[in-house]
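User: Reviewer 2 asked us to show a designed sequence for the structure in our supplementary figure. I'm pasting the structure tokens here. Could you produce the per-position amino acids so we can include them in the response letter?
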């Protein structure tokens, strides 16, 4: 789950990271009131879940409450990379002398959390990595020891933090690490961490939380912003489906994550490409299958749908009935290919064949048929 800037910064602040005073507004009038309360120059920042808002015109300064109202009016409702701005953050303006990057990510290959720093803050770190990778310093953190202050010092010297700020930088690095671990995050980033006459200040924040750990953080789970989420991802979550959209043309509906990955692999092997990962989990009831099918078909790139079902505890004929009921409800006009194995597989296949689906016995056969159907070389 991605968090908005204002949410990320509030979490950072709980762990001790200095951030500007600020509040969120949804109307220009509210922005004006907040600016009046904060006094002086404020920065009006669009709250959307994408980077590069500054360049897109979604981060602007205002020097009076009147100007704050006007600028908020321009930014609210703006379209930034396909997302509509519904909230703005009004922060006290910072006197920026320099911009630094500080971030944490999980490196799955090393099985460690990595802290990254760069003197090139304020621009997207991907751009720094592509153009001047030598300006990124990385520290690998031992999960049992945590981030040690000598490592944070090394990072500070590596990116040229001015000497009088090293102590504060080291503390912020450790605070950010604690925020990352304490929230079960997969990413935590301050970009930029700015140098001001009063020391360092985190003016932008970004956090991604691990969905599988959210049950441990009911307070963080509540931060989910339904306005900002893809409606089909919301629907998937509501039905307990694991859905990841991809770029291919073959929709995949599979019960089991490992089986879903194997299905995607075989689809590729036979020259197709999967449109999604989708694990419908156990107990594939008709309404769950129907929800999954609606989600798959919402993707206009899909040319064929491949069902790969293992009938274990849920019997094959039960799943087949669920699929038929879902098809009756949705009436898709794309080729549907199904492979069912396990308990009552014959009965299951018979039910699907009756419903005009293309059936297969092995996964290889199913994948080949799905690829052929997607390329218009096979019809039911
Ligand atoms: P992003 O473009 O989505 O990463 O949004 P940021 O919050 O990082 O803002 C983009 C840029 O706006 C920053 O790199 C700063 O240069 C500038 N900026 C942000 N807040 C302030 C502020 O309070 N004062 C000033 N002068 N500039 C700011
Ligand atoms: Mn930024």
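Assistant: Here is a per-position design you can include in the supplement:
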């Amino acid at each position: 789950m991605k968090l908005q800037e204002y949410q990320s910064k509030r979490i950072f602040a709980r762990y001790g990271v200095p951030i500007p005073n600020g509040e969120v507004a949804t109307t220009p009038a509210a922005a004006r009131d907040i600016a009046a309360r904060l006094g002086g120059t404020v920065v009006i920042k669009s709250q959307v879940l994408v980077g590069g808002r500054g360049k897109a015109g979604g981060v602007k300064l205002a020097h009076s409450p009147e100007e704050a109202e006007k600028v908020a009016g321009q930014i609210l409702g703006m379209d930034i990379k396909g997302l509509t701005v519904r909230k703005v953050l009004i922060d006290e303006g910072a006197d920026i002398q320099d911009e630094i990057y500080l971030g944490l990510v999980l490196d799955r290959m090393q099985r460690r959390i990595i802290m990254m720093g760069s003197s090139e803050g304020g621009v997207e770190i991907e751009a720094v990595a592509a153009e001047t990778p030598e300006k990124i310093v990385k520290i690998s953190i031992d999960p049992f020891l945590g981030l040690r202050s000598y490592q944070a010092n090394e990072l500070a010297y590596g990116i040229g933090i001015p000497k009088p700020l090293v102590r504060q930088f080291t503390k912020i690095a450790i605070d950010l690490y604690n925020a990352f671990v304490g929230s079960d995050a997969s990413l935590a980033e301050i970009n930029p961490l700015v140098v001001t006459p009063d020391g360092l200040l985190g003016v932008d924040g970004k956090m991604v939380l691990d969905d599988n750990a959210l049950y441990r953080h009911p307070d963080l789970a509540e931060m989910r912003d339904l306005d900002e989420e893809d409606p089909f991802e919301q629907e998937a979550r509501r039905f307990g489906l694991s859905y990841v959209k991809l770029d291919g043309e073959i929709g995949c509906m599979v019960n089991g994550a490992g089986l879903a990955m194997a299905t995607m692999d075989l689809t590729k092997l036979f020259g197709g490409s999967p449109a999604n990962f989708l694990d419908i989990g156990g107990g594939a009831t008709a309404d769950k299958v129907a929800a999954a099918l609606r989600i798959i078909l919402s993707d206009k790139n899909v040319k064929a749908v491949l069902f790969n079902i293992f009938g274990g505890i849920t019997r094959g004929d039960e799943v087949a009935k669920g699929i038929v009921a879902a098809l009756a409800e949705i009436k898709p006009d794309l080729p549907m290919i199904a492979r069912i194995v396990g308990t009552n597989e014959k009965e299951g296949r018979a039910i699907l064949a009756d419903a005009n689906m293309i059936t297969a016995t092995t996964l290889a056969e199913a994948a080949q048929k799905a690829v052929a159907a997607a390329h218009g070389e096979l019809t039911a």
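For the response letter, you might also mention the following. Residues 43, 45, 51-54, 59, 61, 91, 93-94, 96, 99, 122, 191-192, 203-204 surround guanosine-5'-diphosphate (ligand 1) (CB under 6 Å). The mean pLDDT is 93.
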